[in-house]
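I'm stuck. Please check this protein.
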Amino acid sequence: ARSRTVGELLAPTAPFDKKCGRENWTVAFAPDGSYLAWSQGHRIVKLVPWAQCLNKFLLHGTKNGANAVSTRLPRQHSESGQKNKPCEHIIDCGDIVWSLAFGSSVPEKQSRCVNIEWHRFKFGQDQLLLATGLNNGRIKIWDAYTGKLLLNLMDHTEVVRDLTFAPDGSLILVSASRDKTLRVWDLKDDGNMMKVLRGHPNWVYGCAFSPDSSILCSVGASKAVFLWDMDKYSMLRKLEGHHNDVVACEFSPDGALLATASYDTRVYVWDPHIGVILREFG
């Protein structure tokens, strides 16, 4: 009787039924500056043209920022004949989004792909891809301009915690997962999985390419920091020094340094070529 007076209790919404409104797990800039994208919690990714954001900054009267941002407008927005004009939109990925990465088909160096003669779809010179890593282990590849689903990659068995594209424009994608593996995908070859990188004893939290795409760093639980030779797809060395799970890594722009961050409250700066800690923060 009491429950009738107060009211009926409603069952909570299942996580997969709710599209957004929870924690935001990931954010990414397009390499050409056209888009800023983030997960809105759960299934939805929002893409906003970065020029639109800059215009809002200018309208709010940030004088110091006006000169800075006006000189950094993306190349696409200065080209009157641009085929794909960025517009604000959302993508429903169908599952909780843990990771995002943009990839461009405009090559900066010769592609390391081998089998590129056949394609399910043809990449244009202005193609911009968005990769989303999902809770169910899938990776979905989208056309960032149109929101069209291009590829559905399904080999991981656990959460895809991080994604990174090779910066050489080859559209080689590496994914890091809680299934203790990294997987290398060739998006120019219909998303063919080229290699599985094994060696992590536990969850893989993150990964990052060196600027020349020759080395991959991966970090994870159990203090793991691994370096991989991406020409031979073999482990170069394990870097030891952290005292807890390592959750993030990044190379310096010239590739000479590697920074890693850990639950042990420390950030280490390494010489990745000899595996020596050069500086400690924290």
Summary: The two ends are 58 Å apart (CA to CA). The chain has three helices and 20 strands.
